Amino acid sequence: MRIHLATDHAGLEFSTRLQHHLIDGGHEVVDHGPVAYDPLDDYPAFCIRAAQAVVRDQSAGIDTLGVVFGGSGNGEQIAANKVRGIRAALVWSLATAELAREHNDANVIAIGARQHSFEEAVSFIDRFLRTPFPGDERHARRIGQLAAYETDGSLLPDSRDGAGSPVLADPASSFDPEAG
């Protein structure tokens, strides 16, 4: 599998070690930067280029995913998600790495290099890379809705009466937001 990587100064040492780990695991690695330590560098261009490469490769039928990281991973995830066709997930555990693929068919993950040990972060990345998207109808449907919005701004119809007033859940209801 081809893996596109990007970071900023906060993840440069991590990136170097990760590249060796991925290559040793049989992956092809494409590094989108930076190439040298600069404490004032900015992650957006690096992460956007990595995300663009993931979309380009996937469109060409190449088996590819992306990993972006920085101090927290938050900005890197936001940057990657600016690219049409990217579904970048912030990963902080084995469960979120797996669910990013299983439920969201994420094609990029973001990790905070300053939030985890190298070994811990690599375990998340390895889990992400090994986990397939099973294609369950409910998840595929939701991903399709995201793609439709990204393409033309369309959303499912609002189930409210169209008056635009917010609808609040009844406090006595059994609604469970975690049930998904």
H-E order: EHEHEHEHEHH
State the low-pLDDT regions, or none. Answer: none
Shape: globular
Number of helices: 6
User: Whole-Å distance between the termini?
Assistant: 31 Å
Structural class: alpha/beta
Q: How helical, in percent, are the residues?
A: 40-55%
> What oligomeric state is this?
single chain
Task: Let me know the average pLDDT.
Answer: 91
Strand order of the largest sheet: 2-1-3-5-4
Q: Sketch the major β-sheet.
A: 5 strands, parallel
Radius of gyration, rounded?
A: 18 Å
Beta-strand portion reads 5-15%
Question: How many beta-strand elements?
Answer: 5
Descriptive overview:
By secondary structure, this protein is of the alpha/beta class. The radius of gyration is 18 Å and the shape is globular. Strands 2-1-3-5-4 form a five-stranded parallel β-sheet, sandwiched between helices. The model has no long low-confidence stretch (mean pLDDT 91). The protein has six helices and five strands. Helix 2 packs across helix 3 and helix 4 runs parallel beside helix 5. The protein is 42% helix and 13% strand.
Short summary:
This protein is an alpha/beta fold.
List keywords for this structure.
180 residues, alpha/beta, globular, 42% helix, 13% strand
